[in-house]
């Protein structure tokens, strides 16, 4: 029987850990939730944020993982982008809908996962393109899910079942790339 | 003649250095502009941001200074707050005006200066209260100045002369507290 390998996942978000386990357990990896609050720098891209977070994680013997994701509205110059969780907390989806009145509604969700072993770091990115809806709909998921309609669908991310969301989400795509690399 | 003491000011903003010199030269302090780009963490208050920036500045023999400031709109839960320069860059003053339609318009500007000598750190805060105007006016200053009317005035911050602004601004008030302490 193959030895189970461990990944230390630094995040404050329990459901991200559950999602990671879904993808990585079948490959023989256990995922340990490390609640340590790593500082998130104010930088322009998720890649930059993830690199700095990864560098600031305590250096353990094994695999260290961090993740960051964001919602990028094209006609708002990528706002709220790397600040999505802050903007969701203070303005909500209504704030973004208000800013977008009369503007083109293209947007994407993006997730970047960083993995480090010793001094070697690798990044894995997942993106889902779509449009911002004119009203919020649905109760699944979190954050900007209720106002985002993925390309090729007519429902918002928050109207999809958990399984459907896992199939198409930005985070799933990043996890799938990571799984491919680990394999 | 008293010996001139030096303060290393870490900032990417040249005009902040000029403003600091205005307040500190008369007290016998020279201010050296250190352009090093310190990482700004994503935190909730300017005090927290300044503490982390201060801790990350290279530890020199003398006095080390950092500053951070923000525009806090009360009915938007403090947005854009510690993310003011990013939000100004991507949404402009128009974004904030749009978000505020039909809402109360109280706001404040806030600046926090951090000074470190060795392991001792001190923070100095300056605040100016006022209202968000309904349209932008004036060409002085920068950032959200054209939509902010300080309490007791009928002009926006961007309609004030440089001298008038220096007299009432949040940064001036923080610098004045620092000057008081140095004295």
Contiguous low-pLDDT stretches of chain A (5 residues minimum) are none
Q: Span between N and C termini of chain A?
A: 16 Å
CATH architecture of chain A: Alpha-Beta Complex
Count of separate DSSP helical elements of chain A: 5
Q: Please compute the radius of gyration of chain A using only Cα atoms.
A: 17 Å
Structure, described:
Two copies of one chain form a homodimer. The first copy, chain A, is an alpha/beta fold. The first copy, chain A, has a single domain (5-182), classed as Alpha-Beta Complex (Maf protein), CATH 3.90.950.10. The first copy, chain A, is built from five helices and seven strands, in the order E-H-E-H-E-E-H-E-E-E-H-H. Chain A has helices at 14-24, 46-56, 84-100, 162-168, 170-182; strands spanning 5-10, 29-34, 63-73, 80-81, 106-117, 120-132, 148-150. In chain A, strands 1, 2, 3, 4, 5, 6 and 7 form a seven-stranded mixed sheet that branches. In chain A, helix 1 packs across helix 5 and helix 4 packs across helix 5 (170-182). The first copy, chain A, is globular and about 55 Å long. Chain A starts with a strand and ends with a helix. The interface between A and B is medium-sized, with 21 and 21 residues.
């Amino acid at each position: 029987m193959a030895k189970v390998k461990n990944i230390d996942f630094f995040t404050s978000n329990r459901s991200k850990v559950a999602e990671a386990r879904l993808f990585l357990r079948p490959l023989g990896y256990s995922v340990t939730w490390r609640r340590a609050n790593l500082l998130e720098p104010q930088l322009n891209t998720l890649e930059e944020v993830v690199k700095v977070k990864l560098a600031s994680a305590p250096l353990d013997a094994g695999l260290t993982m961090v993740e960051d994701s964001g919602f990028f509205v094209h006609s708002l110059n990528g706002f709220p982008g790397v600040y999505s969780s802050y903007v969701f907390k203070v303005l909500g989806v209504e704030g973004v809908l208000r800013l977008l009145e009369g503007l083109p509604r293209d947007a994407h969700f993006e997730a970047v996962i960083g993995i480090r072993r010793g001094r070697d770091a690798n990044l894995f990115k997942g993106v889902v393109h779509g449009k911002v809806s004119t009203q919020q709909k649905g109760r699944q998921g979190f954050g900007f899910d209720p106002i985002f309609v993925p390309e090729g669908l007519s429902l918002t991310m928050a109207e999809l079942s958990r399984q459907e969301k896992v199939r198409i989400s930005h985070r799933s795509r990043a996890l799938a790339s990571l799984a491919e690399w680990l394999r």
